[in-house]
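Aggregate trends can hide what the representation actually does to any particular protein. For completeness, the protein is quoted in full, as a sequence line and a line of structure tokens.
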Amino acid sequence: MKNLRFVHTDNFRYLTGLRKDFAQVADSVLSEIDVDTGGAISELMRANKTTTEVHMAPGCVCVQSNTASGRYGVHFQKFDGDEYSEKLSLGLDRYGESSPFAFMADLTDGVRHHNLTVPLSTILATAKAMDGSYQVYSHSFCADERGSPLGQELSYIGLTKRGWQSRYREHVRAASGGSHYKFHEAIRTWSDRASITAHTVIACGLTEQDAMDWEERLVGMETLFPNGLNMIPGGYAGIRRLHSLGAIAKGERVTPDDKADIINRFYERMTRRGIPNPEAAANWLDPDYAASVICGAPNRLTLNQVREARALSDLGEKPETIARFVGARSVTQVQRLLDGVTYSRVA
């Protein structure tokens, strides 16, 4: 393949997961925009090397690929200070005044869209290699089958040193295995139904400390339950929470990539609270019986509501928040459940 003038091929593949032929398309697009804007892309590339501030209107280079027809479409979307621009630039300000610039690949079959967005500076030919450094990313299910917005509560923020695609595949496998973790439930519900699914690399090329700081700040602002799909705080605050809950042994070293798996295992264990041996428990409590009789009466919590309320309580949520999230009849109903007054035989 010919040498690319504007695109860092390795970074492009690592951060987007797209093939070299798409990198070639991106290179052609950036070349066109460079001409149309009087050298704006070349100026950004120089800024990558010199850290000189570049004062330009923020925007997003968008390449739309129709996977059914194989055709491409291109446009440059100016943010003009809208809310999305502000959120995106928050994660990119380490790259200076060029930070509000982004590259988006919109992969569509004409019905469903998968948007992959990365900081434009990181895929330019003058960028440093990102492989092996930490990245902070978000996944969002943005619209239903009719295109109606689903809301911010269907967003998740994470970090990894192995590339977000690898982590996302692991989340998908856990979701396929029946995990009750909120993000995994969202994957099961919306991966084939959402008309727009967005994957955004918010910041990359980070040290572990920087990445943990980013995740803690962003999760706290945007996606910590009940505002989103993150079940515990981000960053080191999340690890401290797991230690306090007993999900991590005292003195145990936990890497950022371990954290999501530990949360999931802990959440699954909490759904069986009070049952030390689930197999033996089946002899005296049939789950079908619990669901149909104990939880089946009008105004009673369902089996899933009971399990979810207990797990959320163990994650530190207050009864008021739990009642709102699980759809309980009242806060008192949740409090009596957590006190063991009701539903004590429901696993």
Summary: Confidence is low (pLDDT under 50) at residues 52-57, 81-85, 87-100, 274-291. The longest strand covers residues 196-206. The beta strands are 59-66, 72-78, 102-108, 113-119, 134-143, 155-160, 196-206.
